[in-house]
Specification:
Blueprint lengths: L2 H28 L1 E11 L8 E7 L5 E7 L12 E7 L2 E7 H4 L7 H19 L1
Antiparallel strand pairs: 1-2, 1-4, 2-3, 4-5
Helix pairs in contact: 1-3
């Protein structure tokens, strides 16, 4: 009786992790590369990585905004610099920098780890 909540939790987390990984890989597969411009660099007061605001045009004439972490952009990117961005033609608000997309697949360790943990929870609740 105590196993059912863990089974539901594990299956739900597994589903969410697989969907997130699928969306991330789909963006890398069908994303359209455009030239974005860094319009602002926000550095936290307490240190840590900066957040960059990137603006890019879409074919429908709209300008979209994407916030990227400092390590998702080429080293040394400053305000006014150009950065390549991939956006999803089905949902132009979904984007990531080309620099981040070119990382090896093992860099998706966060989602692979979550999938592994979810599978362990599901198996432990189903077996035990």
């Amino acid at each position: 009786m105590h196993k059912i909540p863990y089974l539901v939790l594990g299956l739900g987390t597994l589903l969410l992790a697989v969907l997130a990984l699928w969306r991330r890989l789909a963006l890398r597969r069908r994303g359209i590369a455009v030239r974005a411009h860094c319009s602002a660099v926000h550095r936290p007061a307490r240190g840590g990585p900066a957040r960059l605001t990137l603006r890019y045009p879409t074919p429908d004439g709209r300008t979209r905004t994407h916030r990227a972490a400092e390590d998702d952009c080429p080293p040394g990117t400053r305000e006014g610099d150009a950065v390549e961005v991939l956006y999803d033609p089905r949902d132009p608000a979904r984007a990531e920098t080309v620099h981040a997309a070119r990382r090896p697949r093992r860099r998706d360790y966060d989602l692979f780890g979550l999938i592994g943990l979810s599978l362990a929870i599901v198996l432990a609740s189903a077996i035990g």
